[in-house]
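Problem 3 from the worked examples.
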Amino acid sequence: MSSSVYVINPNSSQTVTTAIDAAVAPLRSTDGPDIVCLSLAEGPPGIQSQRDVDGVIMPMLRKASELEESAGAFVIACFSDPGLHALREQSQRRVFGIAECGVLTALTLGQRFGVIAILPTSVPRHLRYFGAMGVMDRFAADLPIGLGVAELSDEGKTLGRMIEVGRTLKSAHGADVLVMGCAGMARYRAALEEAVGIPIVEPTQAAVAMAVGHVRLSQALAS
């Protein structure tokens, strides 16, 4: 029976994939489904521009096609959700994008969501997506920490910037729930939530939780 939840990191950074794997570990259970995290070898080291986003779509679709037979669901682990609708067209499985799932989860935890982005160039891309999702009336702001994907490994610097930006989103923009705008931020969630004092959504965890739920329910219906 198709059972694995495949979490595809569309960049080639194994460090990011390892962090994603650790972030979703609490969602694993002995009775499944399996949660398999993998990198896209053809992807760039970090997805930081629209060109990067567009460039990973075809390699990701090919990888997903190879995994289709054993998949119960796919999760696209990049906050731009590259190829989300194309993969939904291609696959017979459930397909989840972490940005969409992160925002939808935030809407259940607060009235106005804020987003912590990595770079200023990420923000216009996010805003286009939130507009397409129809959630701008619940949107507070999207502010960058000014660090690239590779720089997120500097834990002290990253957490400090995230706390600063998170507090600004809360105090100056009225956000009462925050979404981490990158798949590489998960290890900071607990410390950030404690420092800022409002719920923090880690989008890969949100998406994988949804995917696991759908697979388990599908298996229950089939049994």
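Problem 4, a separate protein:
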Amino acid sequence: MSVHAPILAIAVPLLGGFATPLLAKLHRRVRDVWALAVVLFVGACVGYVAVHVFTQGIWVYVLGARQPQETLVPGGFPIRIMLVVDAMSAFMGIIAGLLSLTAFPFALRFLPEEEGKTLALTLGLLLLAGILGMAYTGDLFNFFVFLEVTSIAACALIGFRTWTSRAPEAAFKTMLLYSVSGLLFLLGVAFLYGEYGALNLAYISAQLRGSFVDRLALALFLAALVMKAAAAPVHFWAPDAYGEAPAAKTLLLVVNTQVSLYGLWRVLFTLYGGLWDAGVGWLVVSLGLLTMVVAAFMALVQTDLGRLVAYGAVSQIGYMMLGVGVGLVTLSSRPDYALVAMKGGVFHMLNDALTVGLLFLCVGAVEWAKGTRDLRELGGLGHGLPAVGICFLVASLALAGIPPLNGFASKILIYQGSFRLSPILSAIAILVSILLLAGFTRAFQGAFLGPRVEAQGVPGVFLVSMAVLAVGILVLGLVPGFFVEGVVTPAAEALWHGRALYLAAVLGG
């Protein structure tokens, strides 16, 4: 594993997903143990990769060769497929590994056998493989391939429960947007391949001249990845998707959205590296503000607990775009405050994964206990499910950025950096947090407060999975400095300053 960890993190869940239905034929317990073993192995792989990258630098893994230089022909042209893992890629891998380790144990107990449990586990493993492939690949076409793997697996996860009335509709809506997104990205790849005759991201980055074709490809990439990341005004698929997928598997859909944002950062910072004016950065900032405002207002009027959490999740995409967008606006001058905002945007990816993940697990526990997520039919669950109520409250406060929880730790960095660019940006972001606090306070009151009601107890594995995420929220909120300095700062600087190192690791020099 010490030599092949990057490719194993992708190949094992990919092959493991296809093996899951076969093992289910032997025995259900064999299938469950297999799924857990695959997820644990992937967690070990992404952890090892992260430690290696944070301590030794960029890891270039070449399929079919020992060193990157062995793949170069005269002129520095790479002829083999590469995985290129820098600190930002490793950070994305950590998020995927952590949420899969909490989602799969929950799913094994949550999913009924008669409702496609084997299929859901299979699709979950395939989605995990695609996410890690997008995070680790150094090749534009393979990024597209993994983008499509995640799209297929995600749409199937959303819509496989065909006996419900809304799942097929949500899956079709998501499939439509994902198809357009994939087509746009592929067209961008085709333009660059026609221009430079290569697909390696580092090689193309070194050759870019800022021509019309280059800028057209950038526009296609930007449109495709913003659409896949559920940024407004093309966010409308996400609440349906999050609401109709099995609660435990929604965690992987959240990571799927975040890895699309990662792809956007990779294109803008590493591939293009500033070959544009500040208008692109302002576009990202504007879309971020629009996303957080629209989603927060929509969350206020929801009566379905799952959809309310889904809109809360979409709103957090806006904060990430705002933080990193400040860095894009000022990329030519690189002021210190912009790096602060970028650290906040990157840190918020991890915090959002933990917070939204915990909220969706709480939604799953409520659905298990009462058989409904309609706030008009809920109430009083805090008496019989106090642990679930406490976890929901903690996650809600963290999502709204209340100290001393993890959401505050990342949002304060975003506020601080964006304020230096324009105080209006911080003011809007703070007001949105207040709206979210109001919406989730109403949800907590509607679901958990009130007279005692009869409710089915939840399995212990539910509480364990929720406790892991709740502890993460508290730890990242109480001692954020350790994680910011050790993990977040290297990831943000890999985008901010790391383009030259990325190209040198692949191309030499």
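Solution to problem 4. Residues 277-494 form one domain. The first strand starts at residue 59 and ends at 62.
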